[in-house]
Structure formats: structure tokens, C-alpha cells
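Subject: Interface between my chains keeps coming out wrong

I've been trying for a while to get a sensible model of this assembly. When I model each chain on its own everything looks fine, but I need the whole thing in one frame so I can look at the contacts. Pasting all components below, labels as-is. Any help appreciated, I'm running out of ideas.
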Amino acid sequence: MEIDVAQAKFTGIMREVFNRPDLQYSADLTAAEVDEWDSLSHVDLIVAVESEFKIRLSTGEVRGLKNVGQFVALIVKKAK
Amino acid sequence: MMDFTTLAFLGYIAIAAVIYRVLPMRLRPALILAGSCLYYWFVGSGLILLLICETSLVFFSALLLEKIRSERLRKAIIFTVIGLLIGVLVVFKGAFMLPRRWAGALLMPLGVSYYTFKLLGYLVDVYWQVNAAETSMVNFAAYAAFFPQIVAGPIQRAESFLPQMHGPRDAAWEGVLLGSQRILLGFFKKFVVADNLGTFVNYVYAHLHGGGESILLAFYGYPLQMYADFSSLTDIAIGTALLFGISSPENFEAPFAAPNPVEYWRRWHITLTLWLTDYVFTPLRMSTRRMGNLGLVFSLTVNMVLIGLWHGFRWTFLIFGLLHAFYLAVDALTSKARRKYYKEHPAAGVCAGRIGPVATFHLIAIAFVCFRASTPGDIVFVLRHLLANVTNWSGPFASFFAEHSRVLAVGAGGYAVAEVFDFVRRQNERQSLLKGLPRWGRWSTYSCTFLAMCLLVMLLYVKVSKPSPFLYAIF
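Reply #2:
Try treating it as a single job with all components included. I did that and got this:
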């Protein structure tokens, strides 16, 4: 999967899950910068990502993610 | 016993900090380790052997986890070590349930909950390959045993502590100043707020069924006492760590200003909440993610019950955990709908913003009744008689109040002052206000801090009464 396609899809998912149509993609974006992104909605995001990209993420893989850029890189790696 | 609020402790950290500053940089981790072991020995805990065994076990297991390729073997190692560490913790936490003659042999080792959580978190992160295993035994042991954090946290993560060991930063004067101010704030919260409010709270709970005591006073007083007492421990721990050039995570962030229960847990005992979120809630939630809201409620309940039972295996702590689980589940399940409603009705949103902190404080205060009461029966009694005897006091309580009303006024006033100090401190740390001050302003701050520290030493010297124990140090 191309990284720009993954980025576009991921941005759409973020906007939907956090109900924030104004969110823009940035590789450096972190959960701390989005009020609606907490430990509860984080799992909703993962479920939506798994469903959209037809992948399965583990707790360990998710725990190591520091920002949106790393999340998308993981998606691309798993979707190969 | 070298309690945090004793002259002996202040003397100990002052001497250790001076030695720390004159030693070559490479020896500083060893000094932190030696200082921590000595502190452990001073407080009379004969169970330092347990800390040494658990630290060694986790250190070598982590190195092994990095080397081994077989996933089955890695799983066997991680589950065995987790089982052992949790087993030891459960034995000590549950010791009071044993017959007295056996329980006496199982005195709770100082800080066992805190260092066990630090060790578990580190090991799981190495297993998940989030962090690399530490190769220096001295640095790792200094992390596990770091004495300012051993009594009641904060639970610092290895990824934030260990880099400070690899290249220990110089304990700059600014750190010494901020550390001293933080220690002073801790002493103020403990002596002026917690102990004074505690006088009333303890009286009411000791005479709960006597009739004629204002239970409402204890209902409002206990959360403030608990916050002042527990956060004072954190302040002294963070301040002491700063004297050694170590920055620690915060544990509290104006918790009683939280507009809802979810936000409250982001501001109260932050390091424990984050620890449980990463190592209990998220793995559970990930396993139950296909179960929708049922999975969410289940994960929240397990998490909060663990928080309750972490304080000890008592019915009251279990009820405390279940009640918080209920608050969080209702908050989480309705948050989307509420957010949507407030977007469509901005006036309702503004109104909720004003009422939220007040309502949340009352919910938290109800949960604190469960925490403070000795039995489930007492919880029911307190909640049923909250408004009883608000004005109709018994003779003994009226004379107790008359004799101690100044104590209550000082405690309540001190709480307001402590909140202002904390606010100013947070602003100062965020914006480095001190650096922006003219020279005379900076030197005035240094002088005031120095004088306040001298005054504190003097007060401790003349303090004849036995220091009262910290509420949270027993957990």
C-alpha cells in the first residue's frame, strides 16, 4: 500500500472517530494534541483502522507508537 | 524511623545532595543506589533482600528476553516473572487476612507496591520491544530502589529515569531551588493542611455511631485531607529527586477542578492511572475490542477494582473501585452524546462546564467515604446520615469543635493557600517565570526559600509531638 493512500484513509478515520472534521494529517501529531484522543477513544481508532485496512494490531505494537507518522508506517508495514 | 517529615530526613538528603555534587559524574548512579539502600536500612525495613531479589530477577530476565528468539520461551519467561512478582505483592497485601501470629511475620516491606509496578512495567516494555533492556546493573538497581519515590511514588517509567542515569545531568542551582521550594510546599501541605483537617475527620470517624457529630464536616474534609497528605508526599519526593538532578513525573494536577470523573483520574495519582492504563486497561480493552461497549465496561471495571484492591484486600476498597468503575462507565458511554448535545446547545455546554467540577467533587467525595470507612456498614451509615446533626451537635462534639475551631480554620485556609502555591508553581515551571525576573527578584526568591528552609528546620527541631504518619505511605 502506498503511504499517501494510507495517510489519507487514516486522516478520514481520525476525523470520524474523534468527530473532528477539521483534523489535518501531520506525521508529528500526537494524542496529547487532540482533546478527544484518550485511552478510551484510542481503542475505537484501532478497531476502525483494523476494519478499514483489514489488518490485526497487537497491544505491544500499539504501545510503542509515539505519533501519527509511526501509526501510519505500522499500517503500511502490516498491510503489505 | 526516618519519615519524610523529620529533621533526620532533611539532614540525610542535605548530606547526600552535597556528596552527590562533589562526586565525579560517573559515580553518581552508584551514590544514588548506595543512598537508597542506606535509606532503606535506616527506616528499619529488614526486607531489602526482597528488593534485591526482585530487581536482580527482572534485570536478568529482561536481558534474556532480548536475546531469545523463540516466542514460546519469551512468553514462558514473562508470565513466570509477572506471576512471581504479583504473587509476592498479593501475599503482602493480603497478610492482614491471615491469623495474627502468621501475619506478624509478614510485615509489609516499604514501597513494595511501587517498586513492583516499576519493575513490571519495565519488563513488559522490554517484552513488547518498546524499550531496550538496561545493561548496567547499578543504573537499573538505582532506578528500582530510588529512595525519594519508594514510599509513595510517583511511579516513574524506566524510559524517563534511566536516560538520566546514563548521562546524569548536573544538579544545577535552579534544580536545588525548585527542589527546596517543592519540599517546603510538601511540608506545608502535610503539617498545615492535612494534619489539621485530619483532627476533625479522625474525630468524626472515631465517634461515628455516637450521635451528634457533624458527618458533613468529615465528608468534605476527608478528600481535602487525603489530597493534601498524599500530594505532600509527592511534593517531597519530587523535590528531593530534584536535589539529585533527577526530574520525576507529576502525580497530581488540580484534581478537584476536574469537570468529570474521566478527567479526575487524569489528574489524581496520575502515574498509577497511566501505569494501569498501559499495562492493564489497554491490553484488556484490546482483547475485548470486538465486544463493543460491554468490553469497555468490563475493562474499566477490572481496572478500577484493581486500583481499589491495590490499597489492600478490604471490602471497602472493593466498593471504592466498583463505584469509580460505575462513574467512569457512565461518563465514557455518554460522552459522545453529551458532546454532540453541547455542540447543538452551547448554553447547556457552558452551564455543564460550571457545574461539572462541583458535581464531580461530590461524586469523588462519596467514593472517598468508601475509602475512609472501616466497614461497608459504615459506608451506608455515613451516606444515610450525611445531613444529620449539621447544627444539632452533641455536647462532647460541640466542646471539641470549640476547642479546635482554629485548627479547622487553619487547615481549610491552608488548603486554599496550598492550591494557590501549586498554581503559581505550575505556571513557573511551564513558563520559567523565575528566569524572566530581574536580578533582585531572583535573589529575593533564593533568600526567601533559604529562610523558609531554615524556619522549617527550626520548627522541626522544636516540634515535640510525634510526627503523624502519612495516610498513603501504608499502600
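Reply #3:
Confirming on my end. The mean pLDDT of chain B is 83.
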